Amino acid sequence: MSIKEDIPAIFLAQLSPRGLEAIQKTKDFVNDYCIPADKIYYEQLSEDPAKRWALTPEITEKLKKKAKELGLWNMFLSKHYAEGGGYTNLEYGLMAMYLGRAHVAPEATNTNAPDTGNMEILARYGTPYQKEKWLKPLLNGDIRSAFLMTEKGTSSSNALNIATSAKKNARGNLVLNGFKWFASGAGDPRCAVWLVMCKTSEDKKTPYNNHSVLVIDAKKAIATGKAKVLRPLNVFGYDDAPHGHCEVFFDNYEVQAEDMQNVYLAKDGMGFEIIQSRLGPGRIHHCMRSIGVGEFALGRVAQRASNRLIFGKPMKDRESFQVAFAEWKIAIERCRLMVLNAAHKIDLGNAKLAQREIAMAKIDTPRTVLQILDWCIQMYGAEGVSQDTELARMYAMSRTLRIADGPDEAHLGQLGRAEVKKFPALEKLYQSFETNVARVAKL
C-alpha cells in the first residue's frame, strides 16, 4: 500500500519529497525489522535480578546500526536545529505514527523518550561544553539520559510545587537535597546524565523564576553516595527494565564550584521556560506514537476476528463487531487529524502558539487509544490480558500517558480557561446578530 494512503490528504502538500521518502522508510523499517524484533527483545531481557538492570538486549544495537544505514536517525529534532534530521514536526509526526507500533522502534532510531526532549533542550539551551559532553553522545546513541521532575506527595504538573532544592553553601558549592520519582530512564546502565528540575530561589515576588534545570553527571553523582537510585517503580506490574521509572534521592549532594558554570541549563531561574519548550513537541511525539499503538491493536483484532468463530460464524462477519470496529477507526482518524494539525501549527510558529491544539491532542488521543485497547483486549478475551499478546503491555503504557506530561485535568483546565476568555468576543458577536435583525428585515 502506498504511504500516501496512510496520510490525510490535507497534509500531503506540506510534505517534502525527502520527508515522504523517510516516512515510507520508517514504515518499512518498523514492519520488516522492529515488530519482529520485539519478541527477540523480551527474550533477551534477563530474568536474573542481578543482570536485568545491568545489561541491555543485544538486538537493540543491531537495530540501531540498521536504522543508521537507512538514514532513520534523530528524525525528531526539527529542521530548526543544526543537529537534527532536517524534518518538520509534521513529517516526524507521521514517522512516529509507525514507530509507536513496536516497542523497540523508538530506541532503534534514537527517537525515544525522555532522550528526545532532553536532546532538544540541550540543543536549544546548552552551552558548548554541555553540547560536546552530553548532547553529542546522546545524538550518537552512545549514552542515555533521564529527566528528573516529578516528586512524591505533590502535584508535579504544577512546577511551582517542585521542592527539591539546590542552594549554594559557604564554599560556593551547589548542594542538592530532595526526592524525585518516576525518573524514566534512570535505571538504564547507559544513563549518564540527569536533567534535574530544582528550586534554586525563594523569591515570592517572582515565583516563576525560582526554578532551574540542572545538568548532572549521573555516574559521578551516584559514585559519591550522596545521590542514589533507590528502586524502579512498576507500572501496572511492569518494571520496564532496563529503562525503568526510578526513585532518585539527593542527600546533600554537592556540585563543586569549578563545575558550576556547566551545571545550569541556560541560566539560573529559567526552569519554567525550559520545561515548557521541552514538553510541547514531546506531547505530539507521545500522541502520534499512541496512534500507532491503537492502529497496531486494531490490526491484531482484525486478525483475531478473521479466525475466531462465535457460534459457528467468524467474528468479523457479525454486525456488532463491524459497527464497533468502524467507530474505533473513526475515532483514531479524528485523533490523527488533531495531532497532525498541532504538529503543523508548531511548524508555522512555535509550541507556544499551538498550546490550544497541543492540549486538545494530549487530552483526546491517550484516552481514545486507551478505550480502543480496552475493546481490543475484550475481543481477545482472557488472552488479551496475558503476556501472550502485546495488548496488556500497550494498555499499561498508554494509561500512563493520561498522567505523563501533565494529567488530563491540568490540560482541560488550561484549555477551559483559555476558551472562557473568548466569551466577551462571542457575546459581542451574538449581540450584533440581534441588532442587525431590523437592518436585514428591510432587504
From TrEMBL:
Positions of the Acyl-CoA dehydrogenase/oxidase C-terminal domain: 269-418
Gene Ontology BP annotations: fatty acid beta-oxidation using acyl-CoA dehydrogenase
Top-level lineage group: Eukaryota
Keywords: FAD, Flavoprotein, Oxidoreductase
Keyword Oxidoreductase annotated: yes
InterPro entries: Acyl-CoA_dehydrogenase (IPR050741), Acyl-CoA_Oxase/DH_mid-dom (IPR006091), Acyl-CoA_Oxase/DH_mid-dom_sf (IPR046373), AcylCo_DH-like_C (IPR036250), AcylCo_DH/oxidase_C (IPR009075), AcylCoA_DH/ox_N (IPR013786), AcylCoA_DH/ox_N_sf (IPR037069), AcylCoA_DH/oxidase_NM_dom_sf (IPR009100)
Domain Acyl-CoA oxidase/dehydrogenase middle: 146-252
Residue ranges of every copy of the Acyl-CoA dehydrogenase/oxidase N-terminal domain listed in the record: 50-142
Recorded GO MF terms: acyl-CoA dehydrogenase activity; flavin adenine dinucleotide binding
Cofactor requirement: FAD
Gene Ontology CC terms, in alphabetical order: cytoplasm
Stored Pfam families: Acyl-CoA_dh_1, Acyl-CoA_dh_M, Acyl-CoA_dh_N
Quaternary structure and interacting proteins, as annotated: Homodimer.
Assigned protein family: Belongs to the acyl-CoA dehydrogenase family.
Record protein name field: Acyl-CoA dehydrogenase
Organism placement in taxonomy: Eukaryota, Fungi, Dikarya, Ascomycota, Saccharomycotina
